[in-house]
Structures are given as C-alpha cells and as structure tokens.
UniProtKB/TrEMBL annotation:
Function: Catalyzes the phosphorylation of riboflavin (vitamin B2) to form flavin mononucleotide (FMN) coenzyme.
Region (Disordered), start-end ranges: 1-21
The keyword Transport is annotated on this UniProt entry: no
Main enzyme class: transferase
Stored PANTHER family: RIBOFLAVIN KINASE, RIBOFLAVIN KINASE/FMN ADENYLYLTRANSFERASE
Reactions performed catalytically: riboflavin + ATP = FMN + ADP + H(+)
Pathway: Cofactor biosynthesis; FMN biosynthesis; FMN from riboflavin (ATP route): step 1/1
UniProt family annotation: Belongs to the flavokinase family.
Protein's UniProt keywords contain Repeat: no
Source organism per UniProt: Podospora comata
Any one Gene Ontology molecular-function term assigned to this protein's record: kinase activity
Domain of life: Eukaryota
Stated name of the protein: Riboflavin kinase
Protein EC: 2.7.1.26
Length: 203
C-alpha cells in the first residue's frame, strides 16, 4: 500500500455515545445560542443524495460574535422556517408564520472534506417535498453533541450523522427542552423562534 492509500480517518462511534445530552431540566449556559439568516447554497456535494440535505446559513461574525469562538463541532436544537405560502410544506401554526422543527447542525471546517472556510449547515429533522433556498431560518442552538471528525469513508460519516439525529430527537423530546410555543407541554421559552419581524422592531 502506498502512503496515499493509508486511510487517516476514524470509524463511526455511534453505538458508544449517549443518546441524551444535558440535564432533563433544560439547556445550561452558554446555551441557547441564536442564529438567523437566509438559507444559502452550500458546497453542492450532494448531501441530499446521501439523505442528509443541509440548509446552509451565512457565517457572519458581526451578527453572531460568539460564532468565531464556539468550538467547531456538531450541535442540536430548534430550527424555525418562514416558508412561503407556495411551498408544499407551508403549514404554520395559527398565531405565527413560522414553522418549527428539531435540527442537528455542523459548525466548522468538515475535516472529512478539509474545507478552508468555516460553515454552518443545518439538517432539519423533517421530510420536505421541495427545497427552501432563500427562506429565512432562525436557530436556537440548545447544546453540543460531539467534535467534528475525519472519517475513513463516507459510510462512517453518514452513520455518525444518523446517530446525531437520534440524539437530537431524544434530547429535545424532554419537557425542559421542548419549546412552550409548540403547545405540547414544553417548558422552554422559545418565543424568539416564532416572533414576527414587527414585534422584534418594537421591543
Ligand atoms: P447545498 O450544498 O446547496 O447546501 P444540499 O444537498 O445540502 O445542498 O441540500 C440543501 C437544501 O436542501 C437546503 O438548502 C434546502 O433547500 C433543501 N432541504 C430539503 N430538505 C431539507 C432538510 N430536511 N434539511 C435541510 N435542508 C433541506
Ligand atoms: N463533516 C465532517 O467532516 N465531519 C463530521 O464529523 C461531520 N459531522 C456532521 C454532523 C452533522 C449533524 C451534519 C449535518 C453534518 C456533518 N458534517 C461533518 C458535514 C458533512 O460533511 C456535510 O454535511 C457533507 O456535505 C455531507 O455530505
Ligand atoms: Mg448543504
């Protein structure tokens, strides 16, 4: 085997990781972090074909100063989307135009692909019938799952991401982590995720 053929990455460690992150009471400081912006085009690597499309957000150090110092890695939390009425999944709750979903995201350089810019990409835990490029997205980042890793192969990356999705769903299903605004007994104050632009301006 020549030097180039020796795999440098790691294998998936999904089975060895806990399914629940943080205490049942809810996120602890410095969480939650807020981030928002329009969904932009990503690296076009065909994440969608892998079954894990990621909605990319601009990384803007002036809007989210914490983003330059937050460790690179995989995070989870809630995503809110302002889908247009023409989108097949448009079905906002009665008192808001936003739709809320659990999410997992990666912030960093994707060591498996060795990016040279820091990206923020969100896999929304919901099946969409159409793309939503350009749509405004708000994120409430509730906690940290793991470090970003390099992998031996794409299968290991996908296996770990699949497990990240389970971790996010399980962790967010506890009352202390569910947002009140979903009206299902959640205790976490997540009003910012669904607040209208006008209300924000008058605050
Ligand atoms: P890109 O490289 O442009 O980010 P992807 O293959 O990662 O392309 O696909 C991302 C796009 O797929 C998002 O911008 C969004 O419009 C769409 N999409 C559909 N379903 C989802 C989902 N569950 N989570 C994130 N994005 C999704
Ligand atoms: N890329 C990496 O190089 N290493 C990772 O550990 C990694 N973890 C990810 C976890 C999640 C939840 C998501 C959504 C993406 C992750 N990525 C990671 C980014 C991934 O390489 C990118 O979305 C690709 O476009 C998938 O093909
Ligand atoms: Mg993407």
């Amino acid at each position: 085997m020549s030097k180039e053929e020796i795999p440098t990455g790691t294998t998936a460690a999904s089975g060895l990781r806990p399914l629940l992150i943080g205490p049942s009471s809810g996120p602890e400081p410095p969480y939650p972090y807020r981030m928002s912006g329009p969904v932009i085009s990503g690296f076009g690597r065909g994440s969608k074909e892998l079954g894990i499309p990621t909605a990319n957000l601009p990384v803007d150090n002036s809007l989210t100063p914490w983003i330059s110092s937050i460790p690179s890695g995989v995070y989870f939390g809630w995503a809110s989307l302002l889908l247009p009425p023409s989108h097949p999944n448009y079905s906002p709750a009665s008192n808001t135009s936003w739709s809320m979903f659990p999410m997992v995201m990666s912030i960093g350089y994707n060591p498996f692909y060795k990016n040279d810019t820091r990206s923020a990409e969100v896999h929304v835990l919901h099946e969409f019938q159409a793309d939503f490029y350009g749509t405004d997205m708000r994120l409430l980042i509730m906690g940290y799952i793991r470090d970003e890793k390099d992998y031996k192969g794409l299968d290991d990356l996908v296996e770990d991401i699949t497990f990240d999705c389970r971790v996010a769903r399980q962790s967010l299903s506890r009352p202390g982590w569910r947002v009140k605004e979903l009206g299902d007994g959640g205790q976490f104050e997540g009003g910012w995720l669904v607040e209208q632009e006008e209300e924000k301006a008058s605050l």
